[in-house]
Write a structure and sequence with these properties.
Dehydroquinate synthase-like, alpha domain; seven-stranded mixed β-sheet; Rossmann fold; alpha/beta; two-stranded antiparallel ribbon; 2 domains; 11 strands; 13 helices
Amino acid sequence: MTTTIPVAGGAFAPYQVVVGRGLLKTAGAEVAALKPTRAFIVSDETVAAIHGETVRSSLEGAGLATGVVAVPAGEASKSFEQLEAVLDRLLAEGLDRKSLVVALGGGVVGDLAGLAAALFMRGIDFVQIPTTLLAQVDSSVGGKTAIDTPRGKNLIGAFHQPRRVLADIEALATLPVRQVRSGWAEVLKHGLICDAAFFDWLGGEGAAGAQGDPDALERAVIRSVEIKARIVGEDEKEAGRRALLNLGHTFGHALEAELAFDETLTHGEAVALGCAMAFRYSARQGLCLAAEAERAEAGIRAAGLPTRLSDVAHAFTADALIARMAGDKKAEGGRLTLILARAVGDAFADKDVDAEAVRAFLIEEGAA
């Protein structure tokens, strides 16, 4: 049984997110229905070794000539070097404007492959087959594609919507628990921004999902995609409400950049910590009750995710973090932009945040 969630907006062609089990084996029929001249899989070395042959066989069984390129696993592959390598491979393989790229992997692969598809011959179609929880509930839906630079995360990119997303719950069974928890951070984020009842379910009956329970994971993926699809449909290019999906990301991206995107924090762990910080900052500024910040922090910590700078084996400085936040792509006119909260399930964007107030908060949080 599968669940199909439509993603539609006035500025882009509508598409479907299909959530279910066994979708890797039936990917060929889904992709062939889009009528490409051929398909080409972009994956990473780890995912390609586990799932690459299954998807390739399915595509070829549907009559699509299919090649594969696998980049090294990890955030470092979101680079100009790997983007150039993927584009060169697409050219060498003779893809044309009716060809289609299949992004098979986590968020790194989806971002890299999606950007390559956006640039190749001024834009060709691509399909997302996310194999991590984080990618299934977040990065595969909405058309954001990007690479990183030494100056920050996701600063070079394009909006390029996929033609279809296939979220196979069975693919999550191969993930280490840390990766499942990392994706769970983005699930929690969806509840924190606009669905308090969902957030409470995640911390109660649904908590088994953070440990890999497939039934809880399927329900969490479906609800998260429903939330994101609705927001993306209203605001594709983050001119308004879509910015709420960045809850925790301004703090989180600054932490990741200070750690040089190493393995000290996964992206999801950084987002989880950033969400807890955003709620505490909101409480500090009198925007929400301290009890709401404590409720958010308790739900995040219950999933085994970090909520305090002291949970990270690194000494951060307030000035360095402020500098990172000022360089964030959401900053405007030299002012910081933060997604803050009035309560669990009620987030809002503040585009005029006082950097000195944030600096004082970071020092209070334990930054030097």
